[in-house]
Amino acid sequence: MKPLPEILKEIRPEFDFTTSSDFITDGMLDSFDMVTLVATLDKNFGISIPGTDILPENFTNLQTIEALLRQCGAKV
To answer: Which regions in the chain score pLDDT beneath 70?
Structure first.
């Protein structure tokens, strides 16, 4: 299982996700990136993120993504 910052780095290698508190506002993730991220997280953590939870506020930063993963039953 890969750590979350490593997964994000694979999607957008030009950014350091550990330094941002708002990935969307900072232009680090767009809607296509979020779809890619959800699929990768589902596979990596063996979970299924419901469509109703695929909201920008759940992908703001490392903490909000980790909270979403825990809510979906992943061990982060």
So the answer is: none
As given in the structure block, the two tokens for residue 43 are 């596979």
Nearest in space to 13 (alpha carbons), one of 31, 33, 43: 33
- Answering whether pTM is above 0.70, one says yes
Note the residue count of the chain.
Answer: 76
CA atoms within 13 A on the CB side of 35: 2
Q: How far is CA 38 from the centre of its chain?
A: 7
Q: 47 by DSSP, 3-state: which?
A: coil
Task: Give the span between the Cα atoms of 59 and 66, in whole angstroms.
Answer: 9
